[in-house]
């Protein structure tokens, strides 16, 4: 413990500088204009893994962005930990809401991060958390304390659905063979309340298009006489929830896992201040499905949300027009046992069926993934719990997350191994939002905790 703390203290500024340099690269996988930057980031990660002592490091090409693979095998009789992370980031829009440029990282103090936080797109999701593992590897190799084998698989398409990762995993099961998968792409309850994510929601993401007349029309000459696609689209979207905020798609809840009252009571033990939650978001009330608490709504219940909607004239001033088309992007967060492909089909059928005459509807599926729950009695979970106990001084709380990492279920299906989700971010870190940040304390705490997971996982696996 003292040795890792001393090592971090000695190299703290370099650790921060290296991360900041990576955060400066706008590796936006959703925008083809940034292709060179995404590829540059992959090369940077490759170089970093070579420097920290991996014996094999390679850029693995896919039909999209490459996967950086690395390994260090010290003894085939010892356990193997596979570390997964991603180097791509979300688009930074809306730029005008950032207090500082998204790819010009700055360190500032906040209420939640009195030691400072790095503000930049990708700081928490996932460059900062991914790079904790690289620096933890550096410590273990530099001090000759790597207790087992390690493999790294860092991809560049997580933010656009990991479409090519599935093919890579299926074609490389022997190469990726492991005893446990370790991921830091989640968060914890608070810096003084450590937690380990034990469940993730699945995802179905679609785009809808409503078409009315064959061209934009003058709203005076045609208003009231033809269907307005924007009006129709908003009515259709509004009908997807009833008065209790229950999703109205037939069959949507058929396979939803219903937790017992005992399980819900255990979840309720996690510290949560509703007033502080509302204050942090500057809202006067919470909102959601009747009969469930806020923490249940955003973790164990499925949801349907509009992520973007557009059509017609949105420029400065007025233009009296009935648009020919209207669009929306819609995501559905799913719970275990809901199959994302089936949910996508149910949505498509329902949305097409509720379209009135006068318009046509097109539903385009984008991507999705299954939900996941990991047991808390596994060797991996016990090792993670012991690691947190050492560095935080208290036992972490198992917690289900509302977010999705679709490839986790794929890993279990193809590689037959469990995933441990050791996240060090906070809910307030604004991932996917303007002013995303990651606490300096959290970054360094992750580097301190991860080597202990290696130690305890190796010991408990004997």
Explain what this protein looks like in three dimensions.
The structure is a single chain. The longest helix has 22 residues, at 2-23. The protein is built from 13 helices and 18 strands. β4 and β5 (117-119) form a beta hairpin. It folds into 2 domains: 2-200 and 371-460, Zn peptidases (Aminopeptidase, 3-Layer(aba) Sandwich); 202-256 and 302-369, Alpha-Beta Plaits. It has a 6-stranded mixed beta sheet with strand order 1-2-6-3-7-17, sandwiched between helices. Strands 11-13-9-14 form a 4-stranded antiparallel beta sheet. A 3-stranded antiparallel beta sheet has the order 4-5-18. Helices cover 33% and strands 21% of the residues. With 462 residues, the chain is of the alpha+beta class. α1 packs across α3 (127-142) and α3 (127-142) packs across α13.
Task: Give the SSE map.
Elements: H1 2-23, H2 35-51, E1 56-60, E2 67-72, E3 80-86, E4 106-108, E5 117-119, H3 127-142, E6 149-155, H4 165-171, E7 180-183, E8 195-200, E9 202-211, E10 217-218, H5 219-222, H6 229-238, H7 261-267, H8 274-281, H9 294-297, E11 303-311, E12 321-322, E13 325-334, H10 340-353, E14 360-369, E15 372-373, H11 379-392, E16 397-400, H12 407-415, E17 419-421, E18 437-439, H13 440-460
Parallel strand pairs: 3-6, 3-7, 7-17, 8-16
Antiparallel strand pairs: 1-2, 2-6, 4-5, 5-18, 8-15, 9-13, 9-14, 10-12, 11-13
Helix pairs in contact: 1-3, 1-13, 3-13, 4-12, 11-13
